[in-house]
């Protein structure tokens, strides 16, 4: 339910607190996290829109919340240098601090 409303943090928290993790609940989390990357790609393909720093910031945050730090790093490494601002790097640093030090 949280993922349908776009509340990724609550979706992940609920998933983490499940005593038994079923395939359906895991698939839902994967779909939520993948949707952010697909949205950026769809904007480029369908509308020819160039992603801006705000879009990358959202994607890095989504990946970080999903503990997909390596994927978030890959996004930052591949994004245009002019769009890599403090917010993007701050989200990446926060994810690294939380999940790479576990």
From TrEMBL:
GO terms for molecular function: RNA binding. It comes from the Eukaryota. The keyword Transmembrane applies. The chain crosses the membrane at residues 20-40. One of its GO terms (biological process) is RNA modification. InterPro entries: PPR_At4g14850-like_plant, TPR-like_helical_dom_sf. Keywords: Membrane, Transmembrane, Transmembrane helix. Coiled coil: none annotated. PANTHER family: PENTATRICOPEPTIDE REPEAT-CONTAINING PROTEIN. This is Pentatricopeptide repeat-containing protein. The lineage of its organism: Eukaryota, Viridiplantae, Streptophyta, Embryophyta, Tracheophyta.
């Amino acid at each position: 339910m949280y993922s349908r409303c776009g509340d990724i943090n609550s979706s992940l928290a609920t998933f983490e607190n499940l005593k038994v993790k079923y395939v359906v609940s895991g698939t839902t989390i994967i779909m939520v996290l993948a949707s952010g990357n697909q949205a950026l790609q769809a904007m480029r393909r369908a509308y020819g829109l160039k992603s801006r720093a705000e879009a990358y910031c959202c994607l890095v945050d989504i990946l970080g919340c999903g503990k997909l730090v390596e994927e978030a790093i890959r996004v930052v490494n591949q994004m245009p240098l002019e769009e890599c601002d403090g917010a993007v790097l701050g989200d990446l640093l926060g994810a690294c601090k939380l999940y790479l030090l576990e």
